[in-house]
Amino acid sequence: MSSETHRKAGLASVPEALRHAGLPNVHLKIGEGIVTHGNVLISTVLGSCISVSFYHARSGLAGIFHAMLPSSREGTYDGKTPCKFVDSAIGTIYQQFQRRGLANRELELKLFGGAFSMGVGASPDVQQLVNVGARNVEVARKVLHELGLSIQRENVGGDRGRKLVFNTRTGDVWMKMLGKAEQQVLLSEERVYVPVAEGRACSLNRKEPS
C-alpha cells in the first residue's frame, strides 16, 4: 500500500471535521499509552477496555492509555506492560505529569469505555463475575480518587463499544458509539491548547509522529 493510500485509509476512520486538519493519525492498541506535546490524532476502539485522557492546558502536555484489565496485582503482570492494567496505566501516565511538577487541580481527565460485552441475560451473580468493563471503571475511579484527581467528563458502561479520536492540538475528544448510524459526538466544553512531542510512558510500538 502506498503512503498516500495509507494516509487516506487512516483519514477515513476519523470524524469528518478532522480529516483536513493535517495531523498524523496514530492508532492506540490494547496495552499501549502515550504522553506527548505533539499535534496528533490518537484513535482507539474500546469494548470492556477503558481509556483515560489526561490534559494539562498550560504546559500543553497530553496523555492517554488503552487498558484491558483492572488490576496489575492479579498475578499476570510481567512489569513490562503497565498500560495493560487500569491501575498501573493510570500510575504510569500520571507519573509523567507529576515529575514535571504539574498541579493536580490543573489536570483535565476524561474516562471512557467499560462496556459489558459478555454475559448479557445471565444471572446477576454471573454478570458480576464476567463484567470486566464495570470492574475497569470501578478501579479507574478508585485510583484517580486516591491520587486526588477529578474526572471532568465520562462516558462508560452500556453494552456497546466506543470509537475515540483524541485531537491533541485542540484537546477535543470525539466519541462514536459502535453499531449506531454515523453520528459523532464532540465531548468538549473546555478550551485546551496542546501544541508539539514528548516521550511515551508505556509501550507504543511505532515511531513518534513527526
Description:
This protein is of the alpha+beta class and 210 residues long. It contains four helices and ten strands. A hairpin with a 7-residue loop joins β9 (172-177) and β10. The two termini are 20 Å apart. Mean pLDDT is 78; it is low at 180-184, 188-200 and 203-210.
Key traits:
single chain, 210 residues, alpha+beta, 60s Ribosomal Protein L30, Chain: A, 5-stranded mixed β-sheet, 4 helices, 10 strands, 21% helix, disordered C terminus
Task: Pick out the low-confidence regions.
Answer: 180-184, 188-200, 203-210
Estimated radius of gyration? 17 Å
Number of helical regions: 4
Strand content: 15-25%
**Cross-sheet strand order for the largest sheet:** 1-3-8-9-10
Largest sheet properties: 5 strands, mixed
| Strand tally | 10
Shape: globular
Helix percentage range: 10-25%
- From the 3D coordinates, which CATH architecture would you assign? 2-Layer Sandwich
Question: Could you say which structural class the secondary elements and strand pairing correspond to?
Answer: alpha+beta
